[in-house]
Amino acid sequence: MRAHRTQLCGAALGHLGDLLLGDPRRGHPVAAFGRAAAAAERVLWRDHRGAGALHTALCVAGAVTAVTALSRTARTLAGAGGATLVDAAVTWTVLGGTGLRQEALAVARALHADDVEGARRLLPNLCGRDPQALDADGVARAVVESVAENTSDAVVGALVWGAAAGAPGMAAFRAVNTLDAMVGHRSPRHLRFGWAAARLDDAAGWPGARLTAVLAALAGPSPRGALRAWRADAGSHPSPNAGPVEAAFAGALGVRLGGTLSYGGRTEHRPVLNSRGRAVRREDIAAAVRLSRRVGALALLVTSAAGALRAGRRAERGAR
């Protein structure tokens, strides 16, 4: 139970740090991990799934080993307080909810000022879409979809793995998510090499995505709409995790997501999520941000309660 209290306090402090401070402005550990992963790719790259699997395994193991060693050292030198501070620092580093919401609201401000070109310039901070082909409503839709998906990736999923495996679990989840963004796409260079990272990201993101969809239904303006859109449309999305999250957000907010989009000069025609909803407008960005904030807060409560329950059961078994 003592270890769980340390973990719980660290998660709460880290979440508070993200709310108050946002992402670290300099020397972000995730950026450092990305540079190390890119250097490893230059050495290990082969047009083969096995080479990509080795790259993924080494990078994730390196992140977990570093955080585990840091936690043990802090506990040895400063006891439970030191371990709590490490958990808080890792949580703050891994969570990205505040940065996500700030970037989304920056685009919303540009759209409200009728500065569509400025909104297009800001959009790459949120997603990899080609912004020049988008009008104001198209930019707004891209932002709402990015807020939905990244609420799962940058907040809820990390908290789920933190509850399951502490700071090392959070580090592993962020490492996998970062590798997927770097190599887990269908470019000629990464079609085979990035296969392992993409599949591992799908598996790691599965529980967080479902929890995000449930919480979006509970916290949104239309729980019934969220559940209906999730049930009807999530399965048609090409991503097994983005589908439930984006469908639930679409139904909760009463808007349509999905449709035609462009990545790297390649046009994709994705199924519409929540066909009963209306087209996204610029005002919907603020609504999506509010929903994302509520989902993040609820996720902290749920994962903390789940961790406490698990720790209590372990204590009961140990006392028998």
Helical content stands at over 70%
Strands, count: 2
> What is the typical, i.e. mean, pLDDT?
92
Principal-axis shape = globular
In whole angstroms, the N-to-C terminal distance is 16 Å
Percentage beta strand: under 5%
Q: Widest sheet: strand order?
A: 1-2
What quaternary form is this? Answer: single chain
Main sheet?
2 strands, antiparallel
Structural key phrases:
320 residues; mainly alpha; 5% strand
Short description:
A two-stranded antiparallel ribbon has the order 1-2. It is globular, with a radius of gyration of 20 Å. 74% of the residues lie in helices and 5% in strands.
If you had to describe this structure to a student in words, what would you say it looks like?
Helix 7 crosses helix 10. Strand 1 (257-263) and strand 2 form a beta hairpin. A two-stranded antiparallel ribbon has the order 1-2. The chain has 320 residues and is mainly alpha-helical. The chain is globular. The model has no long low-confidence stretch (mean pLDDT 92). The protein is 74% helix and 5% strand. It has helices at residues 2-21, 29-44, 49-94, 97-112, 116-122, 136-183, 195-219, 223-233, 242-253, 283-319; strands at residues 257-263, 266-273. It has one domain (2-319).
Outline the secondary-structure elements.
Blueprint: H1 2-21, H2 29-44, H3 49-94, H4 97-112, H5 116-122, H6 136-183, H7 195-219, H8 223-233, H9 242-253, E1 257-263, E2 266-273, H10 283-319
Antiparallel strand pairs: 1-2
